[in-house]
Specification:
Blueprint: H1 13-19, E1 25-30, H2 44-60, E2 63-64, E3 71-72, H3 76-79, E4 89-90, H4 92-109, E5 113-118, H5 124-138, E6 144-149, H6 156-162, H7 177-186, H8 231-253
Parallel strand pairs: 1-2, 1-5, 3-4, 5-6
Helix pairs in contact: 2-7, 2-8, 4-5, 7-8
Bound molecules: zinc ion and manganese (II) ion (MN).
Manganese (II) ion is lined by residues 32, 34, 45, 79, 120-121.
Length: 255
């Protein structure tokens, strides 16, 4: 039987049950509902991992679980913070508990290989905690879980091709060249080209403070200019992700 789709939510239960016989990698995209400037939709942080996961899953005959599309709270220095309408954060314990529950359920179905692909900077340690607790829950069942944030796969060579004016670092790359280019590649219909912001980089001190200082954050919500974004740069990053993430998944989970 040919599997009709890699998307778990689109499979019937007998199709999913049949797919488990080949011991597939199940990808879990994680993200956030958060402002991404005036030109990108608020779902960027889960839309990109979902597209990336589907791309890798097709190469390794895997399955993509529905994304966790809420994430840990937006911080001013990395996502613009909570001051924008729509940025909708979970408490860290809620995110950890959700990751833990979902992975434990997958293991109960017989899944033994999971790859979490995250797209929201602030999520990482709460996801790691959820994975670690799930591993403790399931004990010695052979479950293996890999976890990555997609931009960590970008090589120096790719960064030099994409950031012709220098890479500002992932913290400032919110709604800027990296995410805008990848969205232009994977979801061109969702990018408002006529609203791409060209503001100066955010200048913030090297600390956080509560209540959040909204004055630190550029009005656009983009933490630096997105003017140099292009679909070609998105395609370049996607091709490198495909090559290197597929290799890492094969090496760690399928060999
Ligand atoms: Zn983002
Ligand atoms: Mn984010």
């Amino acid at each position: 039987m040919n599997q009709p789709t890699v998307m778990m939510a689109e499979l019937t239960w007998p199709e999913f049950a049949a797919s488990l016989e080949r011991d597939p990698v199940v990808f879990l995209p994680t993200g956030m509902l958060e402002q991404h400037g005036p030109h990108l939709p608020m779902g960027v942080d889960h839309l990109l991992p979902t597209a990336i996961a589907a791309m890798i899953a097709r190469d390794v005959d895997g399955i993509v679980a529905p994304p966790l599309n809420y994430g840990y709270k937006s911080m001013p220095r990395t996502g613009g913070g909570p001051g924008f309408p729509g940025s909708t954060g979970l408490d860290g314990a809620t995110l950890s508990a959700t990751v833990r529950d979902v992975i434990r359920e997958f293991a109960r179905h017989g899944v033994r290989r999971v790859c979490v692909i995250d797209g929201h900077f602030e999520n990482l340690w709460f996801i790691n905690e959820g994975i670690d607790l799930a591993m403790r829950d399931v004990g010695g069942t052979g479950l293996q879980v890999m976890c990555l944030q997609h931009w960590d796969f970008l090589t120096q060579e790719t960064l030099e091709d994409v950031f012709t004016e220098g890479y500002p670092g992932i913290e400032l790359e919110h709604a800027a060249v990296l995410e805008t280019s990848l969205m232009m590649h994977f979801y061109p219909a969702l990018v408002h080209l006529d609203r791409i912001p060209d503001n100066a980089p955010m200048e913030a001190p090297p600390y956080d403070i509560w209540p959040a200082r909204t004055a630190w954050v550029p009005d656009s919500g983009a933490l630096t200019s997105a003017a140099q974004a292009s679909a070609e740069k998105g395609a370049l990053m996607a091709a490198q992700y495909r090559r290197d993430m597929t290799a890492a998944v094969r090496r760690e989970l399928l060999s």
